[in-house]
Amino acid sequence: MANISTLEMALLGLLRGKPQSGYDLRKTFTTTGMRHYSDSPGSIYPALRRLEKRGWIRGASPAGAVTADRRQRREFALTDEGRTVLIAWLEQELSGEDVRLRLSELMLRFAFMDGNIPRSATVRFLDQLSGGLAGYLGEMRAKFEDMSSKVPSLHTGLLAFESGIRGMEAQLAWVREARVQLEENLQ
C-alpha cells in the first residue's frame, strides 16, 4: 500500500466506527494511546483532504453545524472504497521488515481488526507476528552474545541492547497470550 501514510490509515480506522469531524479526530489523538500522531491541524486536515480526494472518505456538513468561529463543521465518513482499502491494509501479510521496523503500525492494524475482518484472520495475524518476533528475537540474542564476548566489562551499550531484547520478549509473550484469548473466543 504505497503512498498511504500510517496517519491516513489511522484516520480510516477511526472513521470506520462513525462519522467524525476533524476536530473530533484531533481530540482522539490527544486523549488516547494514539497521541504519538500529530493532532496538528496542519497534519490532520491535509490528510483528510487527501483521503477525500481519493474517494475513501466523504465530507459533509450536518445541518446547522457551525463551529465557534462560524465555520461550517464538516463530518467525514468512510466510503465503500475506503472500507475496502482499510480491510486490505488490515489483511496484509506481515514481512520481517514490518516486525523489525513497524511494530507500532502493526499494533495499530491489530487495534482496528475487530468488526472489520474475521476473528480467524486476526488470529492468523497474531501467528505471523509471533513467528516474526520469535525469529527476530533469536537473531538479536545471537548478536547480543557475540557482542558480549567481545566487550571485556559491563558496558552501557550492551545494557541498552539487553533492554531492547527484554522489551521484545515482553511483546512476544503478550502476542502469544492475546492469541490464546482470541482462539478461546472463536469457540
Give a description of the structure.
- It is a single chain.
- The chain is mainly α and 187 residues long.
- The protein has two domains: 6-91, Arc Repressor Mutant, subunit A; 110-186.
- Helices cover 67% and strands 5% of the residues.
- Helix 1 (6-17) crosses helix 3 (41-54) and helix 2 (22-31) crosses helix 3.
- The longest helix has 32 residues, at 119-150.
* Count of spatially separate domains: 2
Largest sheet, described in full?
A: 3 strands, antiparallel
Mean pLDDT across all amino acids: 89
Give the percentage of residues in beta strands.
5-15%
Order of helices and strands: HEHHEEHHHHH
The overall strand count is 3
**Treating each run of at least 4 consecutive H or I residues as one helix, how many helices?**
8
CATH superfamily of the largest domain, please? Winged helix-like DNA-binding domain superfamily/Winged helix DNA-binding domain
Percent helix range: 55-70%
Radius of gyration: 20 Å
CATH class of the largest domain: Mainly Alpha
